[in-house]
Design brief:
Elements (H helix, E strand, L loop, with lengths): L6 E9 L5 E8 L7 H9 L7 E2 L1 H4 L18 E9 L9 H9 L4
Antiparallel strand pairs: 1-2, 1-4, 3-4
Length: 107
């Protein structure tokens, strides 16, 4: 199914203690046509130290390397950006519902 040109791509990454990275993204429908700068503002308002989030609490796939290293690995992921996309929706909820979920998270 082709996505709406108004879908929102949430870009994030995992960065271990050695600065190795894995990138990922999720696509949300945006039927309320929330502006991209408002979405980013709401996400940045709830990040840990202005960068990080717990993907389990936010309901997105946790990015990590396949083998755990106690000296380098942790459970947080890092917010990268949001952008408009016509890619297909990968998350069940809309971006508005996602913003409500993350707004309730207290770190």
């Amino acid at each position: 199914m082709e996505g709406s040109k108004n879908n929102i791509k949430f870009n994030y990454l995992y960065r271990d203690g050695g600065n190795y990275k894995i990138y990922g993204s999720e696509v949300f429908a945006n039927p309320k046509c929330i502006k991209i700068n408002e979405i980013e503002k709401q996400i940045r308002a709830v990040l840990i130290d202005g960068e990080f989030f717990d993907p389990k609490r936010w309901g997105v796939k946790r990015l990590s390397f396949s083998e755990w290293d106690d000296d380098l690995d942790h459970f947080w992921n890092e917010f990268d950006s949001v952008q408009l996309t016509d890619g297909p929706q990968t998350m069940y909820e809309t971006i508005a519902e996602f913003l409500k979920v993350i707004a309730r998270q207290v770190h």
